[in-house]
Design goal:
Blueprint (H helix, E strand, L loop, with lengths): L2 H13 L3 H20 L3 H11 L1 H9 L3 H25 L2 E3 L18 E3 L1
Helix pairs in contact: 1-5, 2-3, 2-4, 2-5, 4-5
Length: about 120
Amino acid sequence: MNEKMMEVFTRDIIASLPINKRMLYQFIEGVEDHLAQQAETKEQFLKLLKEKSPHHQAANRFGMTIYETVDLMHEIEDEISEKLERKLDRYKWIDYTCYATYPKQTIHSARYYLIIS
């Protein structure tokens, strides 16, 4: 599976989440991404996660307890994983190259027509 396609599918799934779930997920992911950019090593990143705690920040921002925030985040991650699995099960490439009509000047050029379903 193409990593780029996985990213496209995941973004699509996140965009389809209810607003409260999407905002919480994107907030926590954004804080984690920011911390990852600041860290130079894995150990430094883990230290920053512990010190800055994206989940605690989200709990404060969204007026939730830390337990509610962690539970909801796990629920969101499970939902994303399940939907991604279903998309991947249905995902396939279909080569329609031999059915495409070509203009005369491009007969010898390499062109492929793929449909993602």
